[in-house]
Amino acid sequence: MKKGLLLLLLIFSNSSWSQTYEEKIAASKAFIGKPVQEHTFYTLDKQPITFQNLKGEAVVAYFFASWCSPCYEALENLNKAIETTPPTVHVVAISLDEDWASLERMLERTGYTGEVWKSADAELAFQERLFANFTSSLPHIIRIDAQGILIEGGSRVKSFDQWTALINQNASISKASGI
């Protein structure tokens, strides 16, 4: 009896376990229009950084991982878009890999030379559906305004033309996705 009560207590004490799928989606979408969540990342030289470091700049952040096969082509196309025309926004590619070696292999394979951060706790980012990633999947893209407000999240920007529209023509993620 005690074991059963303890198990129920553990299950219901963790709000993410007790939320329905619809509640998790609603909670994630509620991040839109609010200050971007606090989360620690690391630069490639392993220095801590957060989105607060970019306050005052409009940002497009691309979340990816080495185990995400569509992320490879999207990262290559993002790199081409950055190299073709300098972006009008601050662009950062954010790895949700657990280890540095996987990230380094992916960057080498894709030839990505832009700014890269690595999440300090990728599992938390997925579990909490942070950054309006209500599907809890990759790739994922967000836009943050110069005041640090999360203004949009999505996942369908992959081609060179889509990236160019997003980072050089100030198109929304949804508009760029339709190109």
Any chance you could write out the topology, listing elements then pairs?
Elements: H1 2-13, H2 15-18, H3 21-29, E1 41-43, E2 48-49, E3 59-64, H4 69-84, E4 90-95, H5 100-110, E5 116-119, H6 122-127, E6 140-144, E7 150-154, H7 160-168, H8 173-177
Parallel strand pairs: 3-4, 4-5
Antiparallel strand pairs: 1-2, 1-5, 3-6, 6-7
How is this structure best described in words?
- The protein is an alpha/beta fold and 179 residues long.
- It folds into 2 domains: 1-29, no CATH class; 31-177, Glutaredoxin, CATH 3.40.30.
- Helix content is 40%, strand content 17%.
- It has helices at residues 2-13, 15-18, 21-29, 69-84, 100-110, 122-127, 160-168, 173-177; strands at 41-43, 48-49, 59-64, 90-95, 116-119, 140-144, 150-154.
- It has a 7-stranded mixed sheet with strand order 2-1-5-4-3-6-7, covered by helices on one side.
- A hairpin with a 5-residue loop joins β6 (140-144) and β7.
- α4 crosses α7 (160-168).
- The longest helix is centred in the middle third of the chain and has 16 residues, at 69-84.
- It starts with a helix and ends with a helix.
- The model is unreliable at 2-16 (pLDDT under 50).
